[in-house]
Amino acid sequence: MSDASLHASESGTGEAGFGDYFALLKPRVMSLVVFTAFVGLLAAPVPVHPVVGFAAILFIAVGGGASGALNMWWDADIDRVMKRTQSRPIPAGKVSEGEAFGFGITLAVMSVIMLALAANLMAAAILAFTIFFYVVIYSMWLKRWTPQNIVIGGAAGAFPPMIGWDVATGGISVESVLMFALIFMWTPPHFWALALFMKSDYENAGVPMLTVTHGRKSTRKHILVYTLLLVPVALAVGVTSIGGPIYMAVAVLLNLAFLKGAWDIWRRDEEAAQADQYRTEKRVFALSLLYLFGHFLAILAEAMLGRFGLGGW
């Protein structure tokens, strides 16, 4: 073994490939960012030139990826402890923390500047604030300090449709605020359902998730309460210009299903949950993904039909 390879082995980093840097972007999270921003863009009442729209979505995606890379840089110590994150590029020894930081900062600056040039300054400013909020407010502060980390930090993932809307209209409206609120209110029950069957991971990493600080029983109650608060927000979207009969039908069905799931979680005791390895909690977590995707897909369907005079009320 050469001195160079020995040094690489000891430092935990080797030759990183394209896939390793792509993994830093948190592609699954980035796909949600891209989709909701795309829906916000197309649901807006002002048409956008395809080239401008493509460029805007691309730079929003890059900004979202930059947030992921910077989050992995900061949370490298946590990721090494948690089972579900140990295979990420930094704890796996594929990319060094310094490389992840440089990569993330470069993409963050580039995405904001390019979005300002491709769209407008307000959209770029919201993107810059989103990156700052996710990396500094959520990752560096809230995540390790308070069990309300997901409640407040959920705002970071709620901005993309607002950015997409602003790219098209140059401003903010009731519709874009409600799309933001939909994601914001959805985030706590979504993550708490995950935390119920991943409690040991957060506990071992010292992350004050609600399941760790208040226990699973309290978390189950919080899931039900936040789901009840989420329902009127989801239905309110349906009576705005981006809603319509298709959206409302989808929203009613998904909210009834999600409410039942939250109710089932609330009624569960730990013995039953442990006996079936948290089957209900895992099912509700999977449902929560379908919930958000379904609502934004319905908004997109209303927008597309509206181009032919068929969507909306």
What topology does this entry show?
Layout: H1 3-11, H2 18-24, H3 27-43, H4 50-74, H5 76-81, H6 97-118, H7 121-145, H8 149-153, H9 155-158, H10 160-169, H11 174-197, H12 199-205, H13 210-213, H14 215-237, H15 245-267, H16 270-275, H17 279-306
Helix pairs in contact: 2-4, 3-4, 3-10, 3-17, 4-6, 4-7, 4-10, 6-7, 7-10, 10-11, 11-14, 11-17, 14-15, 15-17
Give me the number of helical elements: 17
Helicity level, as a percent range?
Answer: over 70%
- Beta-strand percentage range: under 5%
Average pLDDT, rounded to a whole number, is: 92
What's the overall geometry?
Answer: flat
Rg over C-alpha atoms, rounded to the nearest angstrom: 20 Å
- The low-pLDDT segments are 1-13
- Could you give the order of the helices and strands? HHHHHHHHHHHHHHHHH
| Class inferred from helices and paired strands | mainly alpha
The end-to-end span amounts to: 70 Å
- Strand count, sense and closure of the main sheet? none
List keywords for this structure.
mainly alpha
Care to describe what's here?
With 313 residues, this protein is mainly α. The protein contains 17 helices and no strands. α3 runs parallel beside α10 and α6 runs antiparallel to α7. The N and C termini lie far apart (70 Å).
Short note summarizing the structure:
The protein has helices at 3-11, 18-24, 27-43, 50-74, 76-81, 97-118, 121-145, 149-153, 155-158, 160-169, 174-197, 199-205, 210-213, 215-237, 245-267, 270-275, 279-306.
